[in-house]
Specification:
The complex is a heterodimer of chains A (about 650) and B (about 280). Chain A is an alpha+beta fold and about 650 residues long. Chain A has 23 helices and 22 strands. In chain A, helix 14 packs across helix 17. In chain B, the strands form 2 sheets. Chain B has a 6-stranded antiparallel β-barrel. Chain B has a 6-stranded antiparallel barrel with strand order 6-7-8-11-10-9. Classes of the chains: A alpha+beta (about 650), B alpha+beta (about 280). Chains A and B meet through helix 7 and strand 5 of A and strand 6 of B.
Chain lengths: ~650, ~280
């Protein structure tokens, strides 16, 4: 029997295996068809997710301007030198091999044992660090520096940010940037890189209002496709305080980015696809007047270490022209990031708080304006017949209350009427009529002017701790009855009352318009309509007496400093009211010097409140001596500026 | 037939072997071959250049005596002007030295001026370069700045025994730290992609957003001196139009370059006297 015949005899078995193999091939073919025809989309998607990465680049923040279009906050370029790691893969490998070889040679020579050799992962890190340091040394040579690679940063970059260029040196000076531009070969893995960081041309001016930003890894992404891909993002910035925080969504730039193809190790292998360019955030036009702001801050600075705040409003619109708070800080110290030493310095000087909106002080004699309005509206005080005999002291409920205490002793104003009482800030007059008016009417009047409410200004961290007390409040919180002494104190703005400088500025602006409420805003709108709120509720004569008393304060009253040659502003009539309040800090009594005013009297345009904290317990610290000069500096700057704006009109009119 | 098939494939096989051989050659051999090839070519470029010089010489000989007298007269005027400027410059140099001493400032880098004839201009979509007739024999260093009467020419990229290759300022391979005249802030200049026969242009980037230019009065772009390669104040070109970059940080724009760059016959290499 031939071999062929033998095989023929076994055909049934062969047939079985043929069928088996055929069936298996069929299964394979079916599987292939299933995966290629029906699951191809899934695999394509998996391949896309594995091989593509998205890189996000936040857009620069928008600029902030003052009402005259002066740039208050912008962006400055931040120069860095970066290293594109994806171009160094071969160098990393070569370095790794050389390091391993050196270790083997050392082992062979008996210098080290096998156990001394680092693990492959560690060797890889060493190789990377050495290559990166070589490139950094090139930069060091060009710039005359001696920087070292931050190993922890480098490791983190490899683990988390491999697709992004590694920043070797940051925040280079323009000269260093220029040097690298010219010295680095265009094709080099080393490249100069620019990004933006906040820039504050006026340094510390309006620091608390403008606020600052901090870096964040959470950036808003809207129109950058491929959100399902693994994403790497450059750090963005977010507002942390002031306008930067309140208007963060407006100022925030629009994020751009691109998708890159990467190899299995995560290195980039192709240039960007679907790039979306980042865009700058919106501009913010504030109502601040930087010239007045600087004038106010400079005026407070003359008292060196004293704390204080100034709030200045446009009477008509409520737009905030100045919101100053001292001590403050240089905003440029926050850019690109605040150092620990600078933060400690701000802490030590207690400079974080914006006292204009968070400093709660008793208003002192400036509150007499409220007492006056309450009395006039209730009929318990009249412009013609209400007088008091001021002998310097007054006994109320078994306790002696004094009129203003000066170096020469208690003030003795004699028989004094309302206008003079406001101008000379006679406490005896207001004790007398305060008791007649009563605490509830005074409190109601203060609440009508919303002195117990936050102003609602477009800034974060405005305090809600302001307080207008009344007998009910005292009973509920202090569990005590209300005494006449409390009423006397309340009538002159002492005791439990607490208000902020901004709230007092709103009060004066409202008074200047003959109304009760002013809502302040930091947004500038040249077409903003005049605010109209509830009328003040005084007759023309009553209102005129009130204003006349306030003007008298700056002529021959407690703010007569305005008539001295140094502080006089020729051509400007000012209606003001001084105040000196006591408050307790760390168990010691200190004075708060107040001055509130509006001007010009005949056509009010600007209103302000100034509060300066004394730092020496028991020191005589009158509003007329400390706060009025600050107000004068602002008024002078404002008056000169407003005169410059209409010289041609005046010239024509003069003819 | 198998032998016929191999005959037909022989050219491809040969090409494959040559390519494989080239790929397997050590790097130093390739570099040697490349440099050797260039050095062999160099005399051809130099000879062509000398012949062109000779042509110009005989063309100059054809001028009449009157023309030469007139040219000499004009030259005397120019010379007088330059002599006066040279005296002024001496006085200014002395003043600068005095101020440097007074303010303890480091001296500005000083250069040796090395004039060189252009042996070859290679201007195409790929290359924008000159070959000059001086090289290692005159201690020309790689990276040295090259200038002419109109400003910046470029930088030396390669130095050979008797010649050097200069990347023109029109080439995308050249990047300079520049300033727009009368503004101290540094900007980046880079050559553009310049096709042949088109006016040469470059790109200026990182221009601060407050700088303004008008097409009717273009602003001069000059070297900043901050990069440490070129001295300050040399003309690169003119910027007539700037556009805001979309990130809002900077502006960028085109720089019009001097058309004489494509006709240069003589340039000056600035050899740093104290290279860093």
């Amino acid at each position: 029997m031939s071999v062929i015949e033998t095989h023929k005899a076994q055909r049934p078995r062969l047939l079985f295996f043929q069928l088996l193999i055929g069936a298996m091939l069929l299964v394979l073919a079916a599987g292939l068809a299933y995966r290629q025809l029906f699951r191809s989309g899934d695999y394509g998607e998996r391949e896309r997710l594995q091989n593509q990465r998205r890189v996000l680049v936040p857009g620069p923040r928008g600029n902030i301007y003052d009402r005259d279009n002066h740039l208050l906050v912008g962006n400055r370029s931040r120069f860095a030198v970066t290293l594109y790691l994806d171009q160094l893969r071969r160098e990393f490998r070569t370095e790794y091999i050389q390091i391993v070889r050196r270790y083997r040679e050392s082992e062979a020579a008996g210098d080290i044992t096998r156990s001394d050799r680092p693990s492959p992962g560690q060797l890889e890190q060493i190789a990377r660090a050495q290559v990166v340091q070589r490139y950094l040394d090139q930069i060091n040579r060009l710039l005359g520096r001696n920087d070292q690679v931050a190993l922890r940063d480098l490791l983190r970059h490899f683990q988390q940010q491999l697709l992004l260029p590694y920043i070797l040196l940051d925040d280079l000076k323009p000269e260093e940037f220029a040097r690298l531009l010219e010295r680095l070969p265009i094709q080099s893995p080393l490249q100069v890189y620019t990004s933006s960081t906040r820039h504050y041309p006026y340094g510390s001016a309006a620091a608390h209002v403008l606020g600052y930003v901090g870096s964040t890894e959470e950036i808003d992404v809207e129109d950058v496709p491929d959100e399902d891909l693994k994403t790497y993002a450059f750090k963005g910035s977010a507002g942390r305080d002031g306008l930067e925080l309140h208007y963060d969504s407006l100022l925030q730039g629009k994020t751009g980015g691109a998708t890159y193809w990467v190899d299995p190790a995560g290195f980039r292998v192709r240039s960007a696809v679907k790039p979306v360019t980042p865009q700058q955030g919106g501009r913010l036009d504030t109502s601040l007047d930087i010239d007045l702001q600087i004038a106010a801050e400079k005026a407070i600075d003359q008292f060196e270490t004293l704390k204080g705040a100034v709030a200045v409003l446009d009477v008509r619109t409520g737009e905030v022209l100045v919101l100053a708070s001292k001590p403050d800080y240089d905003l440029n110290a926050f850019s690109p990031r605040l150092s620990a030493a600078a933060a400690q310095d701000i802490n030590d000087r207690e400079a974080w708080a914006n006292l204009a909106i968070s400093g709660v002080y008793p208003p002192g004699s400036t509150f007499k304006l409220i007492t006056t309005i309450a009395g006039l509206r209730s009929g318990r005080l009249t412009t013609d017949n209400s007088t008091a005999d001021c002998e310097g002291t007054m006994r109320i409920g078994g306790r002696i209350f004094v009129c203003d205490k000066s170096a020469s002793g208690y003030a003795r104003h004699g028989v004094i009427a309302l206008r003079e009482a406001i101008a000379k800030s006679c406490d005896i007059f207001f004790y007398t009529y305060g008791l007649r008016i009563g605490p509830n009417l005074i409190a109601d009047e203060a609440r009508r002017f919303q002195l117990d409410q936050p102003t609602g200004i477009d800034l974060p961290h405005e305090t809600r701790r302001m307080l207008i007390p009344d007998p009910e409040w005292k009973k509920a919180t202090q569990h005590e009855g209300w005494f006449d002494g409390d009423t006397a104190n309340m009538a002159i703005g002492q005791g439990f009352i607490g208000v902020t400088p901004l709230r007092m500025a709103c009060l004066v602006a409202s008074l200047a318009r003959g109304e009760t409420t002013t809502r302040p805003t930091l947004l500038h709108d040249p077409h903003r309509a005049t605010q109209h709120t509830e009328p003040i509720g005084l007759t023309t004569g009553q209102y005129a007496t009130l204003v006349s008393g306030m003007e008298g304060s700056t002529i021959d009253g407690t703010a007569k400093i305005f008539q001295t040659p140094t502080y006089r502003i020729p051509g400007l009539r000012i209606a003001g009211k001084t105040g000196t309040a006591q408050t307790t800090r760390d168990g010691k009594k200190i004075n708060i010097a107040w001055f509130v005013c509006f001007a010009p009297v005949e056509d009010p345009k600007i209103a302000m409140a100034v509060a300066i904290e004394g730092d020496t317990p028991g020191e005589s610290f009158a509003g007329g001596l400390y706060s009025a000069p600050v107000a004068q500096a602002v008024l002078k700057a404002w008056f000169e500026k407003s005169q410059q704006r209409v010289p041609a009109v005046s010239g024509v009119a003069a003819r | 037939m198998p032998s016929n098939r191999f005959d037909q494939a022989k050219p491809f096989a040969t090409l494959g072997i040559v390519v494989l051989g080239w790929l397997l050659l050590p790097v130093f051999v390739k570099v040697f071959l490349r440099v050797g090839f260039f050095e062999l070519q160099a005399p051809v470029h130099a000879t062509t250049s000398y012949v062109r010089d000779l042509q110009e010489y005989w063309a100059d000989r054809a001028h009449s005596n009157n023309e030469l007298v007139e040219a000499g007269r004009q030259l005397r005027h120019v010379y007088a002007g330059y002599e006066y400027q040279a005296q002024q410059m001496e006085a200014q140099r002395a003043e600068i030295a005095r101020l440097e001493q007074l303010l303890r400032l480091p001296s500005n880098p000083d250069y040796r001026f090395e004039p060189a004839r252009v042996a070859r201009r290679d201007l195409s979509g790929w290359w924008q370069q000159l070959v000059i007739r001086k090289g290692a024999n005159y201690d020309i260093p790689i990276g040295a700045p090259v200038v002419y009467s109109g400003g910046v020419v470029g930088r030396v990229r390669e130095v050979h025994a008797y010649t050097a290759v200069v990347d023109l300022v029109t080439s995308p391979r050249v990047r300079l730290a520049a300033t727009i005249e009368d503004d101290p802030r540094p900007v980046s200049y880079q050559g553009g992609l310049n096709p042949p026969l088109a006016p040469a242009r470059g790109i200026v980037e990182f221009v601060p957003p407050d700088l303004v230019t008008y097409s009717s009065a273009p602003r001069r772009l000059v070297t900043s001196g901050l990069g440490g390669v070129f001295p300050a104040g040399l003309t690169i070109g003119y910027v007539s139009r700037l556009e805001a970059s979309t990130d809002g940080l900077f502006q960028s724009g085109e720089v019009s370059l001097d058309p004489r760059l494509s006709e240069l016959t003589e340039v000056t290499v600035l050899v740093p006297l104290s290279p860093d």
